[in-house]
Records
---
Amino acid sequence: MMALYDSPKAAFTDMANGTAEDWQIIAKEFGEFAAELPDRIMTHLNLLSGDFGGFPVDRLTHCLQTATFAYRDGKDEEYVVCALLHDIGDTLGSYNHADVAAVLIEPFVSEENHWMIKHHAIFQGYYFFHYLNMDRHMRDAFQDHPYFERTLEFVTKYDSPAFDPKGDTLPLTFFEPMIRKVFAKPVRSLYKPAQEKMHRATVDAVQN
């Protein structure tokens, strides 16, 4: 394996001076790095292990239990992965964890699942905002939104009850194939056209 310091690198010191050759080098490195995203997600999820934050279960168990509930209820793999990752932002997004999770999944999931994860923190606030001198009915502002009921169901059936130390909790290894499938290829991304063109060129090269 080539040492990291021996790998090809772009020659520019200012993006304004970059060449096509420079960006081909970067694009190749990006493709290899992006392919390892599921591994980094697994690693980051494991950072939640042992972190209770005062809750009855640690943050990883909560995520696993939420995903388990969704899986047992017959939700599809994309939904289950969203359930698993809904609190992955806790480590860096102390004040906006739902936004962090939503940004991570956005290129790979449907609009409705992205919206659900992005807003779940507001919806779950119904259960505790009033104890913090906040408005527990904040979610009502979205009552007319097409994904209101979807998000309400997620919080009520899967997120809220997922704090049981003795509850049904499938291991992370069970969900790993789902993570790899959902994150295999973006469905919407700024770079999607370029990625598709590169993929076609690779396939053509192999076939020829």
---
Amino acid sequence: MPARYAEIARVLREGIMSATYPVGAHLPSEPELMRTFGAARGTVRQAVTLLAAEGLIGVRQGARRVVLRNERSQSFAELHSFAQWAHLHGYEIASRVHSQRRRPATEVDCRKLNLSADAQVLEVLRVRSLDGEPVLLERTVYPPFLADEIEQLPADCVSVTESLRERVGTIFAYGEHLIDAVAAGSTDARLLGVRRGSPLLRQRRTTTTPDGTPAEYSDDRYRPDSVTFSIRNSVGENPLHRLPLTPGTPR
């Protein structure tokens, strides 16, 4: 069962997404929210803080919270899998394996996963859905030490991250993310329900264990109308880095 503040945040988020609270409108005051949900001030503040961290609300002219946006947003301030992020924010998530196969590692696989040239990897294509609509394709490559465990997971396993932690104690601790845009190919278009050639938001990520061992390399492609990425930085801390595209760099 989700924490009370997460449930309150879910209800308010649904109100924002459905335009019950349109962009530019004020959320109810803290006392009003406390009465509506029968919750303590601290619980209400936790819920509001969560929505603020997502970039959905902000403060203008005093303490009243103003709706800033009504898109789903994923922050990179902390490392969460897609399933963990969806559960945290109250979305209904579904997952299914479209295909998986063992194959020889490519040059990119060897570099990203620190493998020898003769290594065999497991490649998995998953379709992820939020609230009943497909929003994400994950093309994930796993190193040999995880291949057997991944193959034993059910095809509709929602959180690979949680399953690996529970089954074998593997923890995904660090992540590197590269973000750009690509055109949807025929498979992307069919599985995401978009036109071929439509722009997709791509996230290439490499995740490692606490000791720095690469555990997965993934090419994730989002429908652009489904999720936005949130980067909140300051003069003191900037988690987002711009990298030049080098001609000939594998994508």
